[in-house]
UniProtKB/TrEMBL annotation:
Biased amino acid composition, Low complexity: 21-32
UniProt lineage: Eukaryota, Metazoa, Chordata, Craniata, Vertebrata
Species this chain originates from: Cyprinus carpio
Region (Disordered): 1-52
UniProt xrefs under InterPro entries: ATPase_NBD
Gene name of the encoded protein: LOC109070073
Coiled coil location: none
PANTHER family linked: ALPHA KINASE/ELONGATION FACTOR 2 KINASE (PTHR14187), HEAT SHOCK 70 KDA PROTEIN 12B (PTHR14187:SF39)
Sequence ranges of Polar residues compositional bias: 1-13
Protein name: Heat shock protein 12B
């Protein structure tokens, strides 16, 4: 059985300030008080740049999956023709008046937990079920939000279906990814003249930039479970940050492919001439998209677009990815002439996506009809509840500033009937008693929401977005930005466009790509073709490990004092790997060297701690939390056998050095290790899901 040692507060020892002392661990305290299992030999104070040869993989095609809160889709490009991006086949079904560029992120499982359908098919199949039968099926909608909101995400985290039944979240995500895998491979095969092997596909999955390492690892594990790639080929899968992907595509845009809101000053929802509604230009662009939606091939030039020709080295811009669940902001700086990008400020954002408007609508229904009734209706008539949310979604997309007439939202008959049975009065009576004058009842079975009512539903979410962007622009690193790119599905909303222009238009030019809902998807393909475009990123957190150091009287608190073999040690000191908002370039690594604590040790486990700030000294400080662990498998490297064989020489364990290299400049944290004595690779892994 493997001898797994759990490191904690004093599991590492860093040489003290006395530089004349040997770096050998011979002077370290003997194991006790949470037994030491490793000792660092060569701590390094900061990341260093290491030129590493890139492993050439024979990828023939890059496939990107934009896994969104409300809608998802895929696109791909053959590496021999990287300037052509193929969008997925148009989905069947959908809502009238909505261009179905992607599929709703909806999943349906049978009562025995088998996959049934995804997207429009899942939604329509669930709708057609008998109400009693539907209670036994598992329908999941907007389930991506769970990953963002769960602070203790693990492989065992569960999702609750609309009917109340629960299943492991990793299985739900794997079902969805497996669905995309089967569809995209069939489509790629149809367009490829040669037989495609599994290892010839590079996969890219998009995630919000504000997601932390556990959520990113969760998506990777779901991809492994879905069969996209195997854990033995991790480089075949890339995790792309959504606003970063959008930024890559925005580099390619030409002037005729964007709407520049700054060129249309807004007064009371109309342009300066007062004759054209604010959103008319966008409606025109969207109509153009609808006409051309059967054309699924997009060409991107090898160079950069006309907007970029205006930009010079050092120019800054913000990309705001306004999606269904979250709003993500990234700040980039142009590096000419190579055209690479440098992140200027750590990714920020929050749960300010379009779902916030849906939640406001649900809260309004609770206020009118009672929260207990709404919860009961959702549980007893889940399919009808889905119908109601679909009806609201369709009307939400048509909301625009300056609109005078009301928006009609059809209530399902089962809602009207269920309310009368539940409350003993009509829906019309409930509306009248609610004193909500901006919501009326239509005899045709519809809620009539006035412009004021829609405005109230949108404003809390939009205000959060505007406030966040304004606060970001106050940061020293973000001042003097030239452009603000609005991307993502929520960026289609004229309500958000008007608010952004009114609040932010004086500070920078606000740009919206015509195909705003597909910007991230196309950019993710470009990222898969060249993951090195973003050369420098900012670290979102401070990362480090707990170590022992020489105790200094007056500097270290007495409660951290540990005396062993006559020497005084300070426990729980944080040895930083990187600091929050630190610039880390591609290729920069953090190195630590460790030695096994005893003969025959098979594994080294190193706890990782993180914090939102850099003003910390100990792993017990407020705001510091254990977030993951690095595991070094010594058995496979031969280190165990070598240590055991040399132990009679007296100091073999101390000489056995395991050199660990950590990389923080990519979208995920990566770790590799090598046994210095044998030159063999040590199986190293980093886990953020086992807390």
């Amino acid at each position: 059985m493997a001898d797994v040692l759990q490191l904690n507060t004093n599991s590492l020892q860093v040489p003290g300030e006395d530089r004349s002392a040997s770096t050998s661990p011979s002077g370290s305290p003997s194991p006790s008080r949470n037994e030491c299992s490793i000792t660092p030999l060569t701590p390094s104070p900061s990341p260093r740049t290491e030129v590493r040869p890139r492993v050439a993989r024979p990828f023939s095609v890059v496939v990107a999956i934009d896994f969104g809160t409300t809608s998802s889709g895929y696109a791909f490009s053959f590496t021999e023709d990287p300037e052509t991006i193929h969008m997925m086949r148009r989905w069947e079904g959908g809502d009238p008046g909505v261009a179905n560029q992607k599929s709703p992120t909806c999943l349906l499982l049978t009562p025995d937990l088998r996959f049934h359908s995804f997207g429009f098919a899942a939604r329509d199949s669930y709708h057609d079920l008998d109400p009693e039968e539907a209670r036994h099926w598992l329908y999941f909608d907007k389930f991506k939000m769970k990953i963002h909101s769960t602070s203790d995400l693990t492989m065992e985290t569960e999702l609750e279906s609309v009917s109340g039944r629960r299943v492991r979240a990793i299985e739900v995500f794997a079902h969805a990814l497996r669905f995309f895998r089967e569809h995209v491979l069939k489509e790629v095969k149809d367009q490829s003249s040669s037989v495609l092997e599994g290892n010839e596909v590079r996969w890219v999955i998009t995630v919000p930039a504000v997601w932390r390492q556990p959520a990113k690892q969760f998506m990777r594990e779901a991809a492994y479970l879905a069969g996209l790639v195997t854990p033995d080929s991790p480089d075949q899968l890339l995790i792309a940050l959504e606003p970063e992907a959008a930024s890559l595509y925005c580099r390619k845009l030409h002037l005729h492919q964007v709407i520049d809101l700054s060129q249309r000053p807004i007064i009371n929802g109309l342009d300066v001439e007062g004759s054209h509604p604010f959103d008319s230009s966008f409606r025109q662009a969207r109509e153009q998209l609808r006409r051309a939606r059967h054309s699924r091939t997009f060409l991107v030039e090898s160079g950069t677009g006309e907007l970029w020709s205006e930009m010079q080295t050092g120019d800054r811009y913000i990309v705001a990815d306004c999606g269904g669940g979250t709003v993500d902001l990234t700040v980039h700086q142009i590096e000419q002439p190579q055209g690479t990008l440098k992140e200027l400020y750590k990714a920020s954002g929050g749960p300010y996506g379009a779902v916030g408007v849906d939640l406001a609508f649900e809260a309004m229904l609770c206020q009118i009809f009672g929260a207990d009734f709404i919860e009961s209706f959702k549980a007893k008539r889940p399919a009808a509840w889905v119908d109601l949310t679909i009806a609201f979604e369709a009307r939400k997309r048509t909301a625009a500033p300056g609109r005078a007439n009301s928006l009609n939202i059809s209530l399902p008959f089962s809602f009207i009937d269920f309310y009368k049975r539940h409350r003993g009065q009509s829906v019309e009576t409930a509306l009248r008693k609610s004193n909500m004058n901006f919501i009326k009842w239509s005899s045709q079975g519809m809620l009539r929401l006035s412009a004021e009512a829609m405005n109230q539903l949108f404003q809390p979410t939009i205000n959060n977005i505007i406030k966040h962007v304004e606060n970001l622009m106050q940061k020293e690193e973000v001042k003097d930005v030239r452009f603000l790119f609005l991307v993502g599905g929520f960026a289609e909303s004229p309500m958000l466009q008007r608010a952004a222009q009114n609040a932010l238009g004086r500070n920078c030019r606000i740009i919206i790509p015509h195909d705003v809902g597909l910007t991230i998807l196309k950019g993710a393909v470009l990222f898969g073709l060249d993951p090195t475009v973003v050369r420098v990123r900012r670290c979102p957190l401070t990362y480090g490990v707990g170590v022992l150091n020489r105790f200094v009287e007056g500097r270290h608190p007495r409660d951290k004092l540990l005396i062993k073999d006559g020497r005084e040690w300070c426990t729980d000191i944080l040895d930083r790997f990187v600091s929050v908002d630190q610039s880390v370039a591609l290729g920069e690594v953090v190195r630590r060297s460790y030695t096994p604590a005893r003969m025959g040790q098979r594994k080294i486990i190193i706890n990782i701690y993180c914090s939102d700030t850099d003003d910390i000294t100990y792993i017990t400080d407020p705001g510091v939390r254990k977030c993951g662990a690095i595991t070094l498998d010594l058995l496979e490297s031969g280190a165990v056998a070598a240590s055991a064989g040399d132990n009679d020489k007296g100091s073999a364990i101390e000489r056995r050095e395991i050199r660990t290299t950590m990389q923080f400049g990519d979208t995920e944290i990566k770790v590799t290790a090598v046994d210095v004595a044998t030159g063999q690779l040590v199986r190293a892994s980093i886990d953020f899901l086992s807390n």
